[in-house]
Write a structure and sequence with these properties.
Chain lengths: ~280, ~475
């Protein structure tokens, strides 16, 4: 039973019911909740994340301050939500601006080959040679504390992965007889990309996007933590960690909150693409 | 098989009694019974999916997981189906040897040819090092492999690799040889050589069991034959008798599907010239594969191109299709032919369709791009004995024969003047092959389409085409 046409003759046991992937379900639920929080922002708790009240500093959770207050008496819940807004929108944005050109350039390199391919690949390799955070740090140094430098830096580091993955897969697909047949039959390049390439690379790109978003969220927090990224008094998870670090002994509950948010976000992103085809 | 002499325990023989293979409660094969004694040959013939290879796997004890064999298997007088896996594998090479399909894949790519055979003499046959070396040298001499001892499998031609594999498989002096589709994927010349090697086995006193879908192999080997279909024995008897006077309708179909038996095609039509190639050269890297190739292709004409593997047949087609610029000479289409006037048919139909898209969507895309009404496409499908419902599926969910016909319909949609077919039926069963090629010749005749068919089957070239071109390497 080795002929190709014969696979149908060898019955395979049918699964009794679709395999449940609890991890992926959990990832999606968490992501949906986080998205909801980010969209609603501080309005969800009706508090101003920047309003100080030194008399109410470091309060435990109460009806008015659901997650307590920080060292300046600001509402923790509102600050965390504001941080979620910032981190997630930055992540989504940088994934889009990295993913779109990365994918298109990858397809272009595979499609045209030759000089186009060599040029694009060497450029990607050059970017890859720099450690990701270093690039962001360099941009941040040009314009300290600015939001756009952070965003541009993260996008510039992330596009390479889309490019490399897409180019690699697209080269294989384009070399297949199926694409040659489609070309001979007069299919337009756009249609070839849609019918042949997208179904082949789509799932992998989704995985890279989720991992990329997780990288972006972590990078924003890491830069905020070392005071290179977003500056106080902006509510950002990394900045909050720095601010609350001196109080870790008296109020460990406070610093744990931004840390938990970061962990949950990264976990949710990773879980949501778990079990999918890996790049 | 019924054999008159009584089985004795010390003559080489293989006896199978009421062998069946099950998947759960479903019977995939059997019951089948036969006996092959020393000096005898048995051919098991049938289409793909007939369960031929299951029989081989059951005999060796290497059935895939989930499959279960019933019935008794006796090898050289010893009941083996009751033995454990270790005891059964101890028989391999010593009691029963197998020549695997596409044997060049069975060789170790990182080991030179000689040592692979020496190893078999040494560890399977148990010869001392010096004896093993001598035995290997003897094998290489009788098989015409002198000088190939130091070569890596990649540096051997396909035919040589096959003989090396044969030497390694038979080094253990196993009296029984089991060959599963030994001629699959071979060109005519190697085909004949392998059949010659196999025919030697019973003459040397061994028992030969050959599994094949090719009538020509059965005819050349003789002996006894079992015709299988869907796991059941359709017909059995002496090969000579069965091939001359088949009783079962299925056997008759199978024999009629043998290209040797096809009627010779009628004279070519006198159509207008659609494609001319002049003094064409085909190269691969620096190497010139084909030189001075001339062709004037007329509408409705069928041309077959044959030649040994690696001669550059596929590259020639791509050059004719305009996919590759000719290294020398020219390819000219008749005036007025559009960009899509030359279409290709591929050897492996599933590889020629976008795998993740339904067939209907693929075909509708093409119909839309070329302003062809969908009704026309369904007409083509009906003419090719396909039903449009099938198109809801993806390419991997229809059979190879169906998919190849769908790819013909797909090519017809763009109203081509020339079809270039690269071994379009080599992966199809004989019966499907015949149907597909017949349909192809009918349709191309009706529509005045010229077709160039690349095939390694001399009989197809001879009987199906109007004109046959044999490629030879430049001197």
């Amino acid at each position: 039973m080795t002929d190709q046409t014969q696979t149908g003759a060898m019955p395979r046991p049918r699964r009794a019911w679709p395999r449940i992937r609890p991890a992926r379900g959990l990832g999606f639920t968490l992501l949906a909740l986080l998205a909801l929080c980010a969209v609603a922002g501080p309005d969800l708790v009706g508090q101003d994340p920047a309003k100080q009240s030194l008399l109410d500093a470091r309060q435990p959770p109460s009806a008015a301050n659901l997650l307590g207050t920080d060292h300046l008496g600001r509402d923790m819940a509102a600050r965390l939500l504001s941080g979620a807004q910032l981190s997630l929108s930055l992540a989504v944005l940088s994934v889009l601006t990295a993913g779109l050109p990365g994918t298109l350039l990858g397809i272009a390199a595979a499609w045209y080959g030759g000089w186009t391919d060599r040029l694009l690949t060497s450029f990607a390799d050059a970017v890859l040679a720099l450690p990701g955070l270093l690039l962001v740090l360099m941009l941040a140094a040009i314009s300290p504390g600015s939001w756009w430098a952070l965003y541009a830096g993260i996008s510039l580091t992330l596009w390479v992965e889309y490019f490399r993955y897409t180019r690699q897969r697209a080269r294989i697909v384009i070399a297949e007889p199926a694409v040659e047949a489609s070309r001979l039959l007069g299919l337009t390049p756009a249609l070839i990309i849609r019918r042949h390439l997208v179904p082949e690379i789509g799932p992998g790109l989704l995985t890279i996007a989720a991992f990329g978003a997780a990288t972006a969220v972590t990078a924003v927090a890491a830069l905020g933590f070392v005071s290179v990224g977003v500056r106080p008094p902006t509510a950002e998870w990394g900045v909050m960690m720095t601010e609350l670090l001196p109080y870790w002994r008296e109020a460990p509950f406070l610093i744990l909150q931004p840390v938990a948010c970061l962990v949950i976000t990264v976990l949710a992103l990773h879980l949501s693409v778990g079990g999918m085809r890996r790049p | 098989m019924t054999v008159s002499d009584t089985p004795s325990s010390d003559t080489p023989s293989i006896a199978v009694d009421a062998l069946s293979v099950f998947f759960g409660a479903t019977r995939l094969l059997g019951p089948v019974s036969f006996r092959v004694a020393a000096g005898e040959t048995l051919v098991i013939m049938g289409e793909t999916g007939a369960g031929k290879s299951l029989a081989a796997q059951a005999i060796l004890g290497i059935l895939p997981k989930g499959l279960r064999a019933e019935g008794s298997i006796t090898i050289n007088g010893r009941r083996v189906d009751t033995l454990g896996p270790a005891e059964r594998s101890a028989l391999w090479g010593r009691e029963i040897a197998t020549l695997p399909q596409e044997p060049w894949r069975a060789l170790d790519p990182l080991m030179r040819a000689g040592p692979q055979v020496i190893e078999a003499h040494r560890y399977v046959a148990g010869l001392p090092p010096e004896g093993a070396r001598k035995a290997c040298a003897r094998d290489f001499e009788t098989l015409g492999l002198q000088g190939a001892e130091r070569r890596l499998p990649a540096a051997l031609s396909g035919g040589m690799a096959q003989r090396v594999a044969f030497a390694a498989a038979t080094a253990g002096q196993a009296p029984i040889l089991l060959a599963d589709e030994p001629t699959k994927g071979l060109d005519a010349e190697r085909h004949a050589r392998v059949v010659g090697l196999l025919a030697q086995v019973p003459e040397d006193g061994g028992a030969l069991l050959v599994i094949t879908h090719e009538v020509a192999v059965a005819r050349a080997l003789g002996g006894d034959i079992i015709v299988l279909r869907d796991g059941r024995v359709i017909e059995e008897g002496q090969t000579r008798h069965v091939l001359a006077k088949p009783q079962a309708p299925y056997t008759r179909d199978l024999l009629a599907a043998d290209p040797e038996a096809w009627p010779k095609s009628e004279n070519p039509t006198d159509g207008a010239i659609v494609l001319t190639a002049k003094d064409l050269a085909v190269t691969r890297g620096e190497r010139v594969l084909i030189e001075g190739f001339d062709l004037s292709l007329r509408a409705g004409e069928r041309v077959a191109v044959t030649g040994p593997s690696g001669i550059g047949k596929t590259t020639l087609l791509d050059t004719l299709a305009g996919l590759i610029a000719p290294a020398q000479g020219s390819v000219q289409r008749a005036a007025g032919l559009g960009r899509h006037a030359v279409q290709k048919l591929y050897q492996d139909p599933p590889a020629a369709f976008p795998p993740h898209v339904s067939l209907e969507r693929s075909l509708r895309d093409i119909a839309r791009l070329h302003d062809v009404a969908w009704d026309r496409v369904t007409e083509y499908l009906t003419a090719l004995n396909l039903y449009p419902d099938m198109l809801k599926r993806r390419p991997d969910a229809v059979s190879g024969g169906e998919l190849q016909r769908i790819s013909v319909a797909r090519a017809l949609t763009v109203r081509p003047a020339v079809l270039l077919a690269d071994e379009p039926t080599s992966r199809l069963d004989p019966i499907t092959q015949r149907q597909t090629l017949e349909l192809l010749s009918e349709i191309t005749k009706d529509q005045g389409i010229a077709i160039v068919l690349v095939t390694h089957h001399a009989a197809i070239a001879e009987n199906w085409a109007h004109q046959s071109i044999t490629l030879r390497a430049p001197a």
